[in-house]
Amino acid sequence: MLRIKNVRFPDSKDTFVLEEEKGVITKLGTSPSDKTADREIDAKGAILMPGLCDVHSHFRDPGFTHKEDILTGAKCAARGGYTDIVMMANTKPAIDTVETLKYVLDKGKETGIRIHSCATVTQGLKGEILTDMAALKEAGAVGFTDDGIPLMDPDVLRKAFETAAVLDRPVSLHEEDKSFIKENGINHGKASEALGIYGSPREAEASLIRRDIEIAAECGVKMEVQHISTKEGVELVRNIRKDHPNIYAEVTPHHLALTEEAVLKYGANAKMNPPLRTEEDRQAIIQGVKDGTITIVATDHAPHAPSEKEGDILKAPSGIIGLETAFTIAYDVLVRGGAIKESELIAMFTDNPRDLYGLPKVKLQVGEKADFTLFAPDEEFLYDTSFSKSENSPFLGKTLKGKIKYTVCEGRTVYEDL
After folding, report:
1. Is residue 352 located within the same domain as residue 239?
2. Looking at the 3D structure of the chain, how many domains does it have?
3. What residues contact residue 201 under an 8 Å CB cut-off, 6+ apart?
4. 55 is in which domain, residue-wise?
């Protein structure tokens, strides 16, 4: 039997005891049982929360395993407190067939956490012909996305929405109209001016969000705007959700914490799609979290080998790793910053993303499988090494406040730092 003492629920200072036996929670109370524990842990006031869920991770497997693979990605996830991961489908080959989807899901069973996957909307990520979405759903796809490549043909998009609505599966969209963009990954503004380029203007995001949410509303599909980055995008989602709450938006921790000026400081390790934007945009995103416009925090964990991020910033690929630091950074910006409560942040990492993809909720109750994470909000640590094969993060080398201490998935300890 495992006993964890001095643990607390979110928004409370009171501590209690959790006991787990044979993978099942047997006690949540103010005093321990009279049983002898095989192991006892002093949580020292750490927060008990359900295992986290990320709905936007790139594990680069198959095809780009020099950057990451499913096993190393899962280790990053467990270190970050995650017990559910939804993988994106822009691998090589893309996850557009039942065969490739089966490979991913079977390999995910080796990790110790729950690995789910989207399938692509279109064959080969070409934006032209829909995949066999019904067959992919039957094989286990939890949703559909061509993430990384915007769907530019509105007729293809409408057909995808209509099909997904019948299948009761969400469609998640990368909203950047490439016709506006000259150099992606860098905001058209201070950063691009300093680099002597044009960059990616905010209209690239706003124009596609405007088009796509209107079509989604007509089709009645569950749609998600991925990694929202602009004040205009937030306002568009805010207005549509008044009548269409099945339209969601996610935000990444880096868009919560950083602005375009980070590109000038960290170079390609702060280059991403959509790019980091202005302080005004960052504050609009935080307000969108506060008022319920944005309901999900997702990592967009996007590993790239160190050699790929070196040299000319314009040639470097976009994206950063983020699973290991996501909750820490979001807690700092949103809870320590006074925008929302601990329980509200945890919902953005647990119930809300699971609702989007129809995944079972994790219940912290006696008699339920032990599936939880401990987070010590006041513990500082130097983020100097990663479990990822890649190192592309502006937060590496920084001292961060708030640390994941323990992750348990279905009764199995998958990470601990105690």
Report:
1. yes
2. 2
3. 180, 181, 187, 188
4. 50-357
Cβ atoms of residues 373 and 407 within 8 Å: yes
**How far is it, in rounded angstroms, from Cα 148 to Cα 223?**
16
Query: What residues are labeled active site?
Result: 300
Q: Which helix (H) or strand (E) holds 79?
A: helix 70-79
pLDDT tens-digit series, residues 293-337: 999 999 999 999 999 999 899 999 999 999 999 999 999 999 999
| 235 and 93 inside one domain | yes
Task: Give the Å distances, CA to CA, from 200 to 8, 38, 184, 271.
Answer: 44, 56, 5, 11
> Rounded to a whole number, what is the largest CA-CA distance in the chain?
69
Return the closest-CA partner of residue 116 out of 56, 171, 168, 166.
56
Between CA 326 and CA 340, with CA 83 as vertex, the angle to 5 degrees is 40
Tell me the C-alpha to C-alpha distance, in Å, between residue 124 and each of 19, 89, 96, 177, 326. 48, 10, 7, 19, 30
Quickly list DSSP for 166-212: HHT--EEE----GGG-SSTTSBTTHHHHHHTS--B-THHHHHHHHHH
Q: What's the CATH code of the domain at 374?
A: 2.30.40.10
Same-domain check for residues 280 and 341: yes
Q: Is residue 290 domain-shared with residue 371, that is, in the same domain? A: no
Contact yes or no for 95/117 (Cβ under 8 A): yes
Same domain, 172 and 256: yes
Residue 17 three-state SS: strand
Asked if 160 contacts 130 with a C-beta cutoff of 8 angstroms, the reply is: yes
Q: What residues are paired with 171 via a beta bridge?
A: 144, 223
Distance of alpha carbon 393 from alpha carbon 107, whole angstroms? 26
Task: In whole angstroms, give the CA distance from residue 252 to residue 398.
Answer: 18
> CA triplet 159, 160, 166: central angle to 5 degrees?
95
- Please tell me whether residues 264 and 338 are part of one structural domain: yes
Cα–Cα distance, 151 to 84 (Å, whole number): 27
| Residue of 270, 258, 264 lying closest to 316 (CA atoms) | 270
Residue 133: per-residue pLDDT: 98
Residue 135 belongs to a domain with what CATH number?
3.20.20.140
Question: Do 220 and 115 reside in the same domain of the chain?
Answer: yes
Same domain, 407 and 341: no
pTM above 0.90, yes or no: yes
Tokens of 369: 């499988």
Share of the chain above pLDDT 70, in %: 100
Task: Say how far apart CA 279 and CA 219 lie, in whole Å.
Answer: 35
